[in-house]
Amino acid sequence: MAQTDSPRHVLITGASSGIGEALALAYAKPGALLSLTGRDPARLGAVAAACEKRGAQVRQAILDVTDAKATADWAVAADDAQPADLLIANAGISGGTHGGPESAAQTRAVLAVNIDGVVNTVLPLIPHMLARGRGQIALISSLAGHRGFPGAPAYCASKAAVKVWGESLRGELAPRGVKVNVVMPGFVKSRMTDANDFPMPFFMSAEKAAEIIRKGLARDRARIAFPWQTSLLAWTIGMLSPALIDPLLRRLPKKG
Ligand SMILES: NC(=O)c1ccc[n+]([C@@H]2O[C@H](COP(=O)([O-])OP(=O)(O)OC[C@H]3O[C@@H](n4cnc5c(N)ncnc54)[C@H](OP(=O)(O)O)[C@@H]3O)[C@@H](O)[C@H]2O)c1
């Protein structure tokens, strides 16, 4: 059986950029098979080539995770090729309020990619992992899932949903040998945060984030939340009464 600190077959959605790209590179080594997806062929191809250079075998697929059938077909075909040791549901988008209420189109797009896309990625492989009595599923949530922030309503809601779904799945699947982990990063350098024009405390590189995630998954940590300073702050904000915290949150800079 593959050790979780050295999974032989890793599936990653949104591997063409940012955290997904850094995770692909972190798991790329001789003997590893990586099944990587994204929407942008050029970006995904470049990541695949870099992983192959590190000795990994790579399967690439261009797909949109909101397409339930395409995503299920991809996951099952990858698992048929070689049983999946680790599935990372990472693909996601964000959007700010642009100074006004978040548009209906953006709200629906963020919820579709970040919630339905994760569900589309994870559900097809659960029966396969349960049948084997082993496997690991990592859901990429965010520290923004601890509390609704006025600057990104749909994004916060989507990440809260992923967090809570993952926590529930973990309890449900652990007795049957399948590990589930919720990952809650703070601010990490990526195309997503390149769009932010406000100060991002404890900003870290995608490479460092991937290393923290890789180590947390190897230890099967239920919640991989980092960096600790932003994690503590976000958790505390989530615990406080809205009467206390709402006036402060309204003054925070908004995501553009
Ligand atoms: N960066 C942060 O500070 C931060 C913090 C907390 C959580 N996160 C989460 O980390 C994950 C990765 O984000 P990132 O920061 O690395 O951003 P990123 O650089 O923008 O990467 C997002 C990835 O998701 C893919 N993607 C987006 N929509 C998709 C769709 N509909 N179908 C398939 N793939 C899709 C993108 O593919 P294309 O290349 O084709 O666009 C890209 O590979 C997201 O879930 C995000 O919410 C990020």
Describe the structure.
Strands 3-2-1-4-5-6-7 form a seven-stranded parallel sheet, with helices on both faces. Strand 1, helix 1 (18-27) and strand 2 (33-38) form a beta-alpha-beta unit. The longest helix has 21 residues, at 153-173. It has 256 residues and is α/β, with parallel strands linked by helices. The protein has helices spanning 18-27, 41-53, 68-81, 104-122, 126-132, 153-173, 191-194, 206-218, 228-239, 242-249; strands spanning 9-12, 33-38, 57-62, 86-89, 135-140, 178-185, 223-226. The structure holds NADP nicotinamide-adenine-dinucleotide phosphate (NAP).
Q: Care to give the gist of this entry?
A:
It contains ten helices and seven strands. By secondary structure, the chain is an alpha/beta fold.
User: Mean pLDDT, rounded to whole units?
Assistant: 94
What is the global morphology?
globular
The helix-strand sequence is EHEHEHEHHEHEHHEHH
Distance between the termini: 46 Å
Proportion of residues in β-strands: 5-15%
- Structural class, by secondary structure, is alpha/beta
Largest sheet: 7 strands, parallel
List the helices and strands and how they pair.
Elements: E1 9-12, H1 18-27, E2 33-38, H2 41-53, E3 57-62, H3 68-81, E4 86-89, H4 104-122, H5 126-132, E5 135-140, H6 153-173, E6 178-185, H7 191-194, H8 206-218, E7 223-226, H9 228-239, H10 242-249
Parallel strand pairs: 1-2, 1-4, 2-3, 4-5, 5-6, 6-7
Helix pairs in contact: 1-2, 1-8, 3-4, 4-6
The protein binds NADP nicotinamide-adenine-dinucleotide phosphate.
